[in-house]
Structures are given as C-alpha cells and as structure tokens.
Design goal:
about 325 residues, alpha/beta, Rossmann fold, N-(1-d-carboxylethyl)-l-norvaline Dehydrogenase, domain 2, eight-stranded mixed sheet
C-alpha cells in the first residue's frame, strides 16, 4: 500500500481519498482552506460539496503542504484547473524526484493553452506525470457506485501504477498512452456541457440535446486529431463517455450552470449559484483559441464563447447553429 497525498479537498479530492483509504492506502489530503480542513476533521464529511458521504477516520486533512507531501509516494492533483499551476509551483519543492503525480483536474489554461499535465511537467519537472479521467462524478464515486475511468501517461509503467493504485471492485481503470486525447476530451466536454445545459434551460427537448452532444463530439474529434490525439480515445471513456455523463447528469456543475444561463443568468451569476468552480467557463476561451490555431471548425464552442463573454442571447446562439450553411455530416465519406 502507498502513502498518497491528495492536493485539494473538494468533492473530487474527497471522493478519491475515500476510495484510496478504503483500499488500504495511507492518505493525507491538503487544502488551502482552513475552514474546509476543520470541517472535514471535525465532522468527517465534506458537508458543502459531498453531503452524506462519511470520510474514513484514517484520512488526515491538513493545510500544511510540507507535512502532506514530505513522505508521499504518489501525489494526486485534485484542485480545480484554474489553480493547478499555482498549487504545483508551491508543491514542487516538497515532491521527491521520480514521484508519480496524477492529474485529475480537467481544463485548458487560458492564455497559454496548455493542458494540466503540461502545466504539472513545467512546474514539477522531477515528477513522473499521469492522468486519471473519464465519466466519474464525485457524488457517485464517494458512495462506491460502479465507475470506469482511464489512466493515461506517455510512460506505460506510470499508467499501470496508477491503474493498480486506484482500481477496486467498483472503480475499474483502463490504461492509455494518448495523454493529449484524454486531456482534450476531459476539457472540451465541459464546454459542450455548458451548451447542453443551455438547451435544457431554454426548454428545448431530447432531440436538441442529442444533436448538440453528437455535433459536440465531432468538434472535439477534429481538434484531438489535429493536435495528435487518436480517434479511439475520443470514442472511449474520456471522450464520448465523459461527454454523456457531463451533458446529462444532475451532478454536472457545467450542465447546471448552462441551465441557469439558458434561463438568462450571466456566467458569473450561474457560477455563484452552483457554488463550485465551473471549469468549462475557464476552458471555453482556450478551446476557441486552439480551434483557431489548428484551423479546426468549432461552431458550438464559438457560440458558447459568445454567450459567456460577448453578451449573446442563448436562444439566438442556438438558432445560429441550426441556420448554418448546409453541409455533409461526414465530409470524408464519398459517393461512388
């Protein structure tokens, strides 16, 4: 069994701490928030973000990063994506060379357009970096509901170590070398989920959402392939799998924020009401910029950005998508 430090005591960090502790690992969880740490130590429950899920007494919660990381054999970066760089910059001094750092945040950094593993590699070059992603809401993982994810790394040994560390009877882990495909799928599905939520908030139907999700995965696929990822990844857990759960689940903060925006709220009002970091908001600009850089058509991402940052009306944005010039569904297919 391993000594594992989880950076971040939100819903996902807490759910993973429960999973790992129940497997017998020695788990310490760090958070910058003193009140959050006090709540978890006093009540053994993440009352704000994972109510009703009891945290094992063996898990240590602390605000002392040095103590949390000093003997860690594996580090899990579970802070929201906008805070990954700053957190890993500070954590790097306490992480020993060769330690596996597992990213579980999903996002693209605004301005640099870097993925989370790229940021971790920059800030913590002595680490061996991997990723864990897929359709995995914390609310269900924390309760032991069967879930399947994928562990990715360019280093096969790292991916298989992550697989061995996390896999349980109810948490099945596959492996993959396609890190960029995994990361883009996990990031861009949040942007598409905002649009799916807007569809619900506008009162449209299942037909509309199915169309949105299908064309959304087409946009994700185009960018993944342009950036060197693989179709198999988009068709897998971190692509279609994560898109389905994030666009349809009551647990999805991105979908829920989109619902509020479809009802007329600004993205800031929606995030305030959801009371969690809505990572799709932070990834939307970067997704649009990457599409432009790689000359990939991403009309849904464009319209989400227009609603988020340009004051566009969600209903009018949806109609613009429907009224685009006619085209083939799959331009690569040819008639004989």
């Amino acid at each position: 069994m391993k000594k594992i430090c989880i950076l971040g005591a939100g819903s996902w960090g807490t759910a993973l701490s429960i999973l790992l502790a129940n497997k017998g690992h020695d788990v310490t969880v760090w958070s910058i928030d003193k009140e959050e740490v006090r709540m978890l130590n006093d009540f053994r429950e993440q009352r704000d973000k994972l109510p009703g899920v009891i945290v094992p007494g063996t898990i240590v919660f602390t605000t002392d990063m040095s103590m949390a990381l000093s003997t860690a054999e594996m580090v899990v970066c579970a802070v929201p994506s906008p805070f990954v760089r700053n957190t890993m910059e500070h954590a790097s001094a306490y992480i020993a060379a060769g330690t596996i750092v597992v990213d579980v945040a999903k996002g693209i950094e605004d301005g640099t357009y870097k993925t989370m593993t790229q940021i971790i590699e920059e800030e913590c070059p002595q680490a061996r970096v991997g990723i864990l992603s897929g359709p995995s809401h914390a609310e269900e993982v924390g309760r032991g509901i069967p879930t399947t994810v994928v562990a990715g790394s360019v280093d096969r040994e790292v991916a298989e170590t992550i697989q061995d560390t996390f896999m349980t009877e109810t948490f099945r882990v596959y492996t993959s070398p396609d890190v960029i495909g995994i990361e883009l799928g996990g990031s861009l599905k949040n942007v598409i989920a905002l649009a799916a939520g807007m569809v619900d908030g506008l009162g449209f139907g299942d037909n509309t959402k199915a169309a949105l999700m299908t064309r959304g995965i087409a946009e994700i696929t185009r960018l993944v392939l342009a950036m060197g990822g693989h179709m198999e990844t988009v068709s897998g857990l971190s692509g279609i799998g994560d898109l389905i759960v994030t666009c349809t689940s009551k647990h999805s903060r991105n979908r829920n924020a989109g619902v509020l925006m479809g009802q007329g709220k600004t993205y800031q009002e929606a995030m305030d009401q959801v009371k969690m970091v809505v990572e799709g908001v932070y990834s939307a600009k970067a997704a649009l910029a990457l599409g432009q850089m790689y000359q990939v058509s991403m009309p849904i991402v464009e319209e989400v950005n227009a609603v988020l940052f340009d004051g566009a009306d969600a209903r009018e944005a949806a109609m613009r998508l429907f009224m685009r010039d006619r085209t083939m569904e799959s331009p690569n297919l040819m008639w004989q």
